[in-house]
């Protein structure tokens, strides 16, 4: 069972990446495999709305041969997905929005008499900004993904307005770890395994994960000569 992290920031260790990495370690605490992909890893062409054409109609796989199609395929195969995005003008980054629009090919399988291919996938959200729009953007993403068939666990949204200092935001770090724990816990329960869907307020766990990500961030910055 796999929990996928989709990073919506162009910055490999910015605030949304920091909290996403905390969430994925949370999912690993539940014993699940994780993987992280950035939406900036290649081209994601904007949806051209062929759902509205007579022929061809929108279906999986999407007609575009690009990096977006690779991410859609990763999402198709994952049991749970955590989307993390910076706030760009009260919304997700444009590149992440392109991906969300392209997920229509998974949802639109209902037009072919099949369930939505997003149905039953468990989703969690992380939003990071410097000012306003955190809950608006999280609420938007949860609404859109739920409308595609995805399932939302309790406490599924973690957010910080500490921008690239998100790792210093203890509440946000604990919430992000819980996004991972709860997404993984619910995915396990839905597949007949024993899982937990209670919020875990655990300072030892929080500090262990925070320090691990901080070390990875410092190593990354040293390698890329940036601070
Ligand atoms: C184009 C653009 C628009 C932004 N709009 C907002 C905004 O509406 N609200 C906000 O809180 N922060 C806004 N910010 C600040 C970013 O959300 C903030 O720098 C965040 O840390 C970026 O995430 P990252 O560190 O994961 O890259 C904006 C930044 C950019 C570049």
Word description of this protein:
The chain is of the alpha/beta class and 227 residues long. The chain has a single domain (2-223), classed as Flavodoxin domain (Rossmann fold), CATH 3.40.50.360. Helices cover 42% and strands 13% of the residues. It has helices at residues 15-29, 67-77, 94-102, 104-107, 134-147, 170-190, 203-223; strands spanning 2-7, 33-38, 80-86, 122-128, 157-160. The chain has a 5-stranded parallel sheet, sandwiched between helices. Helix 5 (134-147) links the parallel strand 4 (122-128) and strand 5 (157-160). Helix 1 (15-29) crosses helix 6, helix 1 packs across helix 7 (203-223) and helix 6 packs across helix 7. The longest helix is centred in the C-terminal third of the chain and has 21 residues, at 170-190. The mean pLDDT is 96. The protein binds flavin mononucleotide.
Enter the CATH topology name.
Rossmann fold
Portion in helices: 40-55%
Number of domains: 1
Given the structure, what is the number of helices?
Answer: 7
Which consecutive residue ranges, at least 5 long each, have pLDDT under 50? none
Structural class: alpha/beta
């Amino acid at each position: 069972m796999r929990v996928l992290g989709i990073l919506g920031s162009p910055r490999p260790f910015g605030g949304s990446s920091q909290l996403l990495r905390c969430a994925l370690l949370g999912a690993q605490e539940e014993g699940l495999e994780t993987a992280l992909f950035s939406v900036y890893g290649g081209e994601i062409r904007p949806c051209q709305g062929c759902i509205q054409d007579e022929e061809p109609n929108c279906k999986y796989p999407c007609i575009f041969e690009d990096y977006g199609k690779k991410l859609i395929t990763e999402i198709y195969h994952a049991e749970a997905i955590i989307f993390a995005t910076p706030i760009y003008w009260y919304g997700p980054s444009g590149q992440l929005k392109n991906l969300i629009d392209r997920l229509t090919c998974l949802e639109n399988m209902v037009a072919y008499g099949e369930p939505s291919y997003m149905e039953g996938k468990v989703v969690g959200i992380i939003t990071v900004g410097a000012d306003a729009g955190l809950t608006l953007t999280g609420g938007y993403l949860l609404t859109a993904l739920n409308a595609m068939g995805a399932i939302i666990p309790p406490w599924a949204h973690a957010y910080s307005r500490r921008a690239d200092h998100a790792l210093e935001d203890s509440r946000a770090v604990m919430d992000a770890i819980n996004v991972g724990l709860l997404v993984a816990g619910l995915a396990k329960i839905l597949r007949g395994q024993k899982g937990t869907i209670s919020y875990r307020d655990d300072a030892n766990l929080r500090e262990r994960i925070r320090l691990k990500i901080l070390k990875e961030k410092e190593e990354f910055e040293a390698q890329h000569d940036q601070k």
